[in-house]
Amino acid sequence: MSKQQTTGPVLEIEGLRIALPEGADRPLAIDGLNLSVNAGEIVCLVGESGSGKTLAASAVMRLLPEPHVRVTAGTVRFEGQDLFQLSEKQMRALRGSRMSMIFQEPMTALNPQKRVGWQIDEVLRLHTNLSRKERHARVLDILEQVRIPDPASAVNAYPHQISGGQRQRVMIAMALVLQPKLIIADEPTTALDVTTQLQVLRLVRELQAKFGTGVLFITHDFGVVAEIADRVAVLRQGELVEQGPASEVLNRPRHPYTQALIAAVPDLRPPKPKDFSGAPEVLRVANLKKTFKPKRSLFGRRRNAVVAVDDVSFELRKGETLGIVGESGSGKTTVSRCVTRLLEADGGSVRLGESDVLNASRRDLRALRRDIQMVFQDPMASLNPRKRVVDLIAQGPIVHGEDPEKARARARELLSLVELSPAAAERYPHEFSGGQRQRIGIARALALNPKIIVADEPVSALDVSVQAQVLKLLADLRDRLSLSLLFITHDLRVAAQLCDRVAVMEKGKIVEIGPTATVFSNPTHPYTRKLLASIPGRNWTPPVLAGNAA
Amino acid sequence: MSLIEAKIEAAPPSAWSELWRRYRRNRAAVLGLVLLGLVLAMAATAGLVEPEDPLRRAGEPLIPPFTSWATPLGTDQLGRDILAGIFHGARTSLLIGIVSTVIAVSIGILVGSVSGYFGGWIDDTLMRITEAFQTIPNFVLLLALVAIMGSSLQNMIIAIGIVSWTAPARLVRAEFLSLRGREFVEAARNLGVGDAGIIFREILPNALPPVIVFASVIMAISILLESALAFLGLGDPNYASWGNMIGMGRSVLRTDFYCVAIPGIAIIVTVLAFSLIGEGLNEAVNPRQKKS
After folding, report:
1. DSSP 8-state assignment for residue A430
2. Which of A481, A539, B62, B276 is the most buried (most CB within 10 A)?
3. Best interface-test mutation with B: which of A296, A363, A386 has the largest number of B CBs within 10 A?
4. Going by C-beta distance under 8 Å and a sequence separation of 6 or more, which residues neighbour residue B2?
5. Is A381 close to B12, i.e. CB distance below 8 A?
6. Do A138 and A176 contact (CB within 8 A), yes or no?
7. Distance between CA atoms of B147 and B141, rounded to whole angstroms?
8. Residue in B4, B8, B187 nearest the CB of A376
9. For residues A283 and A484, is the Cβ–Cβ distance under 8 A?
10. Do B186 and A395 touch (CB under 8 A)?
11. Does the interface ipTM go beyond 0.90?
12. What is the pLDDT of residues A475-523, one digit of tens each?
């Protein structure tokens, strides 16, 4: 590879404009996008959901769902060649060989019916004249390069037989096997756990440097940007608001929108710890156990039981926030369901004040539910789409015998407490944005005047700026109403900002528990250390910007 | 936080007008509605056409249609006015269609929701019973029931309801299976809502649209089942019904085909109306299925 090639642009987008079908929320998905990617460079295209970043990528690959969504103006040049002038056949020859794509969800992007080796081999079969033997050697070689353990047996595995991180490696192997000049990666690590995410990011960086590939990396996560980007382009509602070198945009953002986005990224340094030793204990969980036994069918083989929660103990004091952090499959969600008895635990005890939750009768349990309420992860799925907001919020008190008129009046008050307009009361959930729905969910949880709120990933489905607002609201309400919060999250940044103490879970066990500041600065368990070291952009501290610090 | 308040848009059109807007796009479905309106009008005005008994003798037997002012559609072999029979038959057919569908859908919703919500052995038991009903051909079971209970109109309606509940039961069960794991159901449980409240207030309203669509199909089938029974001579002879008319006309089919053809057309029009409405409703309720 000559020096000249590594510096020239592989991809040049000029004045790109993409029209959306009639009735969409705006006429243009992308309006006048100018962007170039040089060889050997990683350009991050950052934006919140609906900013048009994925459509921009599809336009480059000419994979837009035409004719509903179509390019109306602009050019896209790949190695100097205008892509919009090419025939579909010429385009097919380019895709996969000279330019390739990595998708967000490796499980759906791989064909579940075909072996991993076959799928990588297909790329070679379509674009090269290599013999079978040569192709097999290439497949093994690329699998080795993406560091799949034991490539020889991985070749014969089906996608469901390997882990999520390995599937994403296979996707990367497929994208890289012909050493393309350009890779478009659409949120390739969003579906992965932090530890896997870091490995995959490092792999992309390393292989890209080795092959001199230009990468257009689409993400919503500024941590990932800090980890990987050479240059950053920020997209808002289809308009490019800022573009520049990564260090420049991350540390000295100019456009107010970029400033607001970066200000919304939670800081990894926890605030000063508060002292709760004098506060009364509201929840004590001791030796909680839950095993998922597989359903035995008549002739089926017996499968292994999964221990989801293994001997988990913790206590929660009044006004305190305990974060339960861990990766997917660590059992943190199961803990939240057992504590609220939406799932029946197999052993241990949960004491809410003086009452025993796990052994409460149906009637006692109903009364206990007043004190412990939940906020769910997906604000759309957790609100009954056929109920008005006021009825959703008033439902709890009405079930517990409150006069319906009074309950509805109180529901309207709660709306203003969660900073929604009173006009929202008569609407249905689908009329609201994600952040507004989560506010409704919070109002519903508050309607019963609970002592404890169990929040299961309440902000992970939200955009970063909305996430910051909802977190602020939660913290605010906690302090005003002296609530105790059991906060389940996979996002250590969020945990750092909100939680007084954190419990780190791995494979159903709490491996470390302590004040957030102590755990973050002085982790004792190796798993905690690994988790903390995997946070994307951990060495980058979001700058405190005047005027946006609040 | 004035920003958030401002973001809530003006109220969109109500759910009903939105449904009607989408329904209207399908011309065939609108035709179905017109045809149903026609049948309803016939049922409503039956008393004006024949204020007394539609089964009374109105003139000479076997007058061909369009020959006499007194009996515009002619008479059958007993001299009964066919026009009066068609108008009063519309009442009977609609009654059968609506009541037996209500019976079938009610049983179906009850069995399906309990089965889908609780799962486990309750589900197993109820589904085995459903399968037992499904393995016997509908019409054979209907014949057996009518033979046992006797063929009065009420018994026929009940019997048709009993043979038609399995499909809606399975439909409701499938909807419940996918809905019961949703977070809003967990949210309701966490508020302390009881099982009955969750089944009927939380899940059922979300599971209903496909059932309502399917109900129009059941109505069409119920009307056909009654006609088939009557054709075999098992109908209730005390009511004017299209099936009875066809059953009677069978014996003069070669010489005076209109005795069979006219009520036959009435049945076709009604069944077609329900089928078209069902299809139109389905498209209006699931707009995404149609989009390519």
Report:
1. G
2. B276
3. A386
4. none
5. no
6. no
7. 10
8. B187
9. yes
10. no
11. no
12. 999 999 989 999 999 999 999 989 999 999 998 999 999 999 999 999 9
